[in-house]
Backbone:
């Protein structure tokens, strides 16, 4: 009968203070009740880097046996694995043998009750001391519970017609074992009255040559002799090598000539405490049951699939309901833990579903991966923003497309960005000056952030800007107050601002992007028409400061566009999915407002980063207070302590710190209601068989970017004249008081 194999992983101290052998003996007793006559193979595959404990079960009885094991080891994992014997490379040598009881099987060999330490400890220590990583030690105990009626009615006849006959081979036995007749009868009767199993015991060792394999086998056989008792002992039969051994081993057939008691089987196979065995594979992070109303793939397009449950072999593909995406998603985990691939899965779901998407990527790989799966029918929807593309710089002017009441909001956002940029150099006068510059520039068409430096250093340019100012208070500052500022606060405000903008404009990529006056894409239109905006800001190519600056400005601009949706009915606002990887690079004080208010404008945020130390307290509190769903990958100890409170009582710090790659804990909003935390594993992201990335990038260049030669000519003209076209404004110089800088 073919068996399906499951690797058993248990948590430390799973026995709850009891001996592991005792716990597994109880499992065997239960199996004898519910799996009568069912063949089961209990196996150990030992390697220096990790020892695996496995159980082979007939497919028809997987649920029955699994339920017994789960009841005994509530936090255990049972992972389906392939037959390791079949996977042995042909060049590896293997030597092994069957193991019998020396004096038939009416009397037991020495069982765990006679030992103070774990009976598998010598074998596991031998495995741990092997020098070669690829060498293996195998132990197989194939069992089949005897029918209970057979146990009581037929045992005596099958074992030489009655219990007293156990002494017929007793002369030799008495001489060798020094056991009295009464002792033999007592232990034999105890075994007869207990649960028994047909059994077959085999051991094997693999190595790169037969000599070492046989040497290791003799060591294992010596370990088995430690189970020698007064009444019986284990005895290895003839050594088999390579194919003959493997053929016998893979039969996994219990033999009716060998019966073992529950205690004997538990002595040979049980699940030791991982804490007592350093190289044993065990549960490093617990699993938990998903909510009953978990959105699965059966719900169709309303679910954004990204994960698969991994609790007790219940595998269900699941994701977020689109309605719950509006409450935002927060993802945290160390580098390489699986965050970006999870985001990629969600992005793919959105793109293929025809939704509007923006991806802000400070590395570039995520955008490249997204481009690979954009289908041809959505190619015209894609806008690629890549400052590293020196041949076709795309225009981004934060001051453009801003009118009315949104000017003040944009100004606040830009001030927060510059505040982060200046860091310790920031001061109230600098903030005051920058506010008046931005509000002045917003009243003049075709101004850019590069205009800040020109406004401070060019008297003629400033006159043009001031003439267009609509706000009397702002105009008053430039007409009456700024001359005094030039004298008093040159070092505090004016020079630092000139220097910082000059520093940015000296970067060719920044100058060519921020210096163009007109954006060839409208962010509000991108959202309403469900386009795909891919923002690629690789730190390694453009520098960390430029990445943070451009990214933060993009966040501000997208938020501004979302706020403008107030002019349409909420029902008409289409969902727009905004993904920000390593979002701490782009977070400012106004980011808190974005998370708090974006939901009603259908700007659905997905933010990810590596550790909490990257966030200030304001952002941290805002995240925990405003996100509807949270996915936690592996973190460090400090963060694990924080998230243990969020994920309690199901998971603790140890669980979070030891999550495997792509494993996660999720605390999801389902239908607007927060669910208990549960465990999962990210879905595989299939590689795109065909990619249209090159054609998509080229189409984006043609539609939204300019050749670098045209941009250079445009900026050179602006640098000379202060205008992107011939000046048409007649200056009224008398309106201004002198001196102007």
Residues:
């Amino acid at each position: 009968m073919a068996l399906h194999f499951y690797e058993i992983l248990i948590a430390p101290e799973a026995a709850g203070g009891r001996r592991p052998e005792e716990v597994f003996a109880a499992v065997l007793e239960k199996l004898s009740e519910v799996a009568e006559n069912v063949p089961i193979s209990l196996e150990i595959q030992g390697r220096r880097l990790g020892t695996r404990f496995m159980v082979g079960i007939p497919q028809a009885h997987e649920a029955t046996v699994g339920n017994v094991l789960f009841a005994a080891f509530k936090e255990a994992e049972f992972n389906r694995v392939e037959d390791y014997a079949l996977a042995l490379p042909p060049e590896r040598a293997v030597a092994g043998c069957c193991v019998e009881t020396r004096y038939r099987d009416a009397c037991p060999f020495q069982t765990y009750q006679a030992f103070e330490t774990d009976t598998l400890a010598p074998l596991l220590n031998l495995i741990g001391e092997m020098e070669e990583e690829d060498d293996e030690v195998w132990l197989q105990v194939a069992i089949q519970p005897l029918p209970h009626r057979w146990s009581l009615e037929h045992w005596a006849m099958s074992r030489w017609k009655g219990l007293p006959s156990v002494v017929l081979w007793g002369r030799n036995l008495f001489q060798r074992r020094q056991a009295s007749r009464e002792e033999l009868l007592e232990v034999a009767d105890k075994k007869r009255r207990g649960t028994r199993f047909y059994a077959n015991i085999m051991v094997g060792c693999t190595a790169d040559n037969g000599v070492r394999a046989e040497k290791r086998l003799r060591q294992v056989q010596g370990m088995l002799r430690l189970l020698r008792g007064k009444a019986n002992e284990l005895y290895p039969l003839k050594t088999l090598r390579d194919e003959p051994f493997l053929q016998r081993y893979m039969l996994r057939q219990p033999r009716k000539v060998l019966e073992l008691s529950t205690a004997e089987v538990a002595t040979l196979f049980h699940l030791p405490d991982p804490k007592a065995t350093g190289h044993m594979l065990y549960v490093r992070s617990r699993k938990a049951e998903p909510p009953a109303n978990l959105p699965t793939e059966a719900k169709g397009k309303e679910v954004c699939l990204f994960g698969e449950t991994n609790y007790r072999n219940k595998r269900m593909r699941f994701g977020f309901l689109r309605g719950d995406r509006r409450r935002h998603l927060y993802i945290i985990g160390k580098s390489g833990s699986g965050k970006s691939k999870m985001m990629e899965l969600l992005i793919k779901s959105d793109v293929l579903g025809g939704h509007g998407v923006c991806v802000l990527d400070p590395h570039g790989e995520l955008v490249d991966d997204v481009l690979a799966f954009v289908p041809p029918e959505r190619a015209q929807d894609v806008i690629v923003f890549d400052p590293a593309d020196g041949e076709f710089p795309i225009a981004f002017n934060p001051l453009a497309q801003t009118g009315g009441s949104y000017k003040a909001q944009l100004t606040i956002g830009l001030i927060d960005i510059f505040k982060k940029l200046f860091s310790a150099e920031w001061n109230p006068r600098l903030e005051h000056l920058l506010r008046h510059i931005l509000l002045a520039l917003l009243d003049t068409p075709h101004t850019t952030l590069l205009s800040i430096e020109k406004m401070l250093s060019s008297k003629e340019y400033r006159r043009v800007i001031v003439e267009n100012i609509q706000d009397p208070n702002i105009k008053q500052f430039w007409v009456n107050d700024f001359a005094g500022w030039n004298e008093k606060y040159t070092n505090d405000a004016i020079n630092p601002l000139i220097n910082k903008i000059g520093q940015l404009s000296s970067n060719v990529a920044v100058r060519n992007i921020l210096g163009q006056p007109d954006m060839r894409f409208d962010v509000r239109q991108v959202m309403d028409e469900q386009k795909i905006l891919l923002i690629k800001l690789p730190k390694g190519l453009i520098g960390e400061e430029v990445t943070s600056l451009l990214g933060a400005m993009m966040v501000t601009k997208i938020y501004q566009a979302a706020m403008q949706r107030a002019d349409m009915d909420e029902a008409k606002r289409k969902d727009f999915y905004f993904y920000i990887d390593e979002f701490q690079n782009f977070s400012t004080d106004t980011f808190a407002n974005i998370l708090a208010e974006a939901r009603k404008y259908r700007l659905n945020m997905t933010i990810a980063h590596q550790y909490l130390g990257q966030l200030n307290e304001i952002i941290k509190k805002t995240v925990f207070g405003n996100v509807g769903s949270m996915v936690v990958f592996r973190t460090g100890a400090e963060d694990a302590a924080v998230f243990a409170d969020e994920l309690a009582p199901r998971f603790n710090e140890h669980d979070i710190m030891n999550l495997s790659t792509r494993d996660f804990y999720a605390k999801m909003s389902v239908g607007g209601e927060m669910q208990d935390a549960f465990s999962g594993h990210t879905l595989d992201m299939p590689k795109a068989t065909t990619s249209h990335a090159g054609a998509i990038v080229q189409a984006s260049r043609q539609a939204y970017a300019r050749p670098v030669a045209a941009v250079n000519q445009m900026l050179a003209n602006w640098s000379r004249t202060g205008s992107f076209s011939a000046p048409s404004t007649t200056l009224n110089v008398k309106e201004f008081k002198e001196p102007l800088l």
